[in-house]
Amino acid sequence: MKPERQNMLVAAVALAAIVVATTRTPEARSNDSQEKKARDAAAQAAKAARSFEGIMRVPDKAIPRDLLARAKAIAVFPQVIKVALTVGGEGGRGVISRHVGTGWGNPVFVRAGGGSVGLQIGASSTDFFLLLMNDESVDGLMKDKFELGGEAGIAAGPVGRNVGAATDALMHAEILSYSRSRGLFAGVNVKGIVLKPEDDLNVAVYNQTARELLGDPVSGDAGAAAGLKAFPQALGRYTVNPSNDR
User: What is the rounded CA–CA span in Å between residue 172 and residue 39?
Assistant: First the structure.
């Protein structure tokens, strides 16, 4: 075969390959997008589970289990706030599960942004944790956006085994907040941070919005794909009946 004809044949084959690669059906591209979002969701749920497990391994400095048992919902935002020389935040992604009977509902995906975090100067990144203690605070998450400290009372949560502190906290706040930065964990006053549903992910994974998922939660063992169960299962390992704790 002459070199000119051979080069033309190679070019034709290459062009055909490009055409095939770029003319995939919309359905195929949509399936790829759905799979990517499903993997993203599973990774996010697993990351939140690891963060929560990390703060609960030291009972004397962890979130009191009687508070976990009484919480209507728990939200975890791993590595959400990056702080320079002053207080402030850049935002991040997290998951929230609602208490369902003796277990926890499927993880719902949310974003956090703006606001400030007290006394986190110098931290490169911060995990933060929210315990929503009544139905009204959970209802706030069903809105398009929900400002912490603006629409619901929020306070730094107690840590460790101090049941008295936990009881007092229940009386004074709708939401209890905690943070962990560079291995340090404590209750922290968080205000001005706005939470918004990450509904592109929720719809991709569940075909439901955050409002629908939180309004009618499904047990984490019943309705979630295997990769999403890590978060509700982690919560379940540390949630006990207060009367049986300690």
Answer: 39
Residue entry with tokens 């509904």: 199
Beta strands (DSSP E) in the chain are: 73-81, 92-100, 103-104, 108-113, 116-117, 126-132, 146-147, 154-156, 175-181, 184-187, 190-191, 194-197
Give the pLDDT score at 73.
Answer: 94
> Tell me, what DSSP letter sits at residue 143?
S
Residue 246 is predicted with a pLDDT of 40
Residues of the chain with pLDDT under 50: 83-89, 119-123, 219-223, 242-246
pLDDT computed for residue 95 by the predictor: 94
Neighbours of 178 (CB within 10 A): 22
Instruction: Extract long-range pairs of 199-205: CB within 8 Å, 24+ residues apart.
Output: 200/37, 201/37, 201/40, 201/41, 201/44, 201/109, 202/108, 202/109, 204/33, 204/34, 204/37, 204/38, 204/41, 205/37, 205/38, 205/41, 205/109
CA gap 228, 220 in Å, rounded = 8
Contact 66, 163 (CB under 8 A): yes
First vs last C-alpha separation in the chain: 85
Using one digit for the tens of pLDDT, what is the confidence trace for 148-195? 766 556 777 778 765 555 555 556 678 888 888 765 656 666 666 788
CA-closest candidate to residue 41, choices 232, 225, 237: 225
**Cα 44 to chain center, whole Å?**
7
Query: Tell me, what DSSP letter sits at residue 133?
Result: -
